[in-house]
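Researcher: Please translate sequence to structure tokens.
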Amino acid sequence: MADLHDRWVAERRNEHYYKLAKKLNYRSRASFKLIQIDNRFAIFKPGDAVVDLGACPGGWLQVAKERTWPDGKVIGVDLRYIKPLEGVETFVGDITEDSTMIELLRRFGGKADVVLSDMAPNIAGHYSMDHARSINLCMYAVDVCDRILKKEGKLVMKVFMGDMFDSLIQELEKRFQSVKVHSPDASRDTSSEVYVICQGFYAKTNVGLKKPVEEEKQPEFKAKGGVFRIRPWLRPSGGILKNYRERKGPGPLGMFVLSRAGRRTRRRGRPSGSPWRSCRRW
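Model: Translation complete:
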């Protein structure tokens, strides 16, 4: 397995678009995929509001910022932290949560013109499982469109080919005027990934967003009175405390311990202190 990974890393470093991305200061080789898609399908316009789902490390954010300059607004969201980019807003969020959608709408001051999704599942090596996870992520992206995409808006997302691909296309055709499948030249020949380019959002589905409910703060419990004397507790190792001494604070495991005198009193029977008079004999 280690040899396979080392070979993959070596091939990646020798790959043309990987070297080109390093040379042009793009954060990932995936930047060239979006460039090629935009050159063919004219995804971006100056001044567009763009959201990138699963934006880490930020290669697509760089391209979106360049193509929507000078008045465009680009926001990236991911479960992982994204290093800051000049002119781009990023934050950590879960796209399955309404709170993330509310935050996007707040930052845009309205809805988005373009939704991008280069999300991919953690590859398990089992093709049908990886494909199903990819379709699941795509459906999340479609749900995001129902919530924050403007009418006539556009969607670009990555998906792995498989037996569930047709059902995904059917869902997209219900929402967009044009749905096309494309594989850019920057994609590896051995990869099963393709990109679905959707244009002309119908905006028929109006999904209401629920604001997160703030949990009420429960009153804190405060013990009244002085120090209680209770039976000594066991150590984590299982042995009984031997060196008893008077404590005004908690002992091991948060319990209070007794003095030697208190221990001897208990051995003879019921202690003489008033707190113990109603207790049963030990």
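Researcher: Any highlights?
Model: The domain at 16-201 is CATH 3.40.50.150 (Rossmann fold).
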